[in-house]
Amino acid sequence: MAKNEVSLDDLLLEKIARALDGLEYGSIHIVVHDSQVVQIERTEKYRLPVEKPEAKISQARTGK
Q: Which InterPro entries match (predicted)?
């Protein structure tokens, strides 16, 4: 393995680690062509608290 391949692997691992950093919900998609990583995609989702339908009905009735 050539010296520049090692640094490329290290750079790739660093980029993947950065994509994972702080990700609570979501996915990391790594695209490979001809045995080479060509793209890293990060999809992040934000989860919002869900109110139960009964809570909304009781709030509407009480005005709160």
A: DUF2292
Are the C-beta atoms of residues 40 and 27 closer than 8 Å to each other? Answer: no
CA–CA separation, 3 and 34 (whole Å): 21
Backbone CA torsion sign across 12, 9, 22, 46: positive
Q: Report the distance separating Cα 26 and Cα 53, nearest Å.
A: 26
Per-residue pLDDT reduced to its tens digit, 12-55: 999 999 999 999 999 999 999 999 999 999 999 988 888 877 76
Phi, psi of 30 (to 5 degrees): -110, 120
Q: Is the pTM of this model over 0.85?
A: no
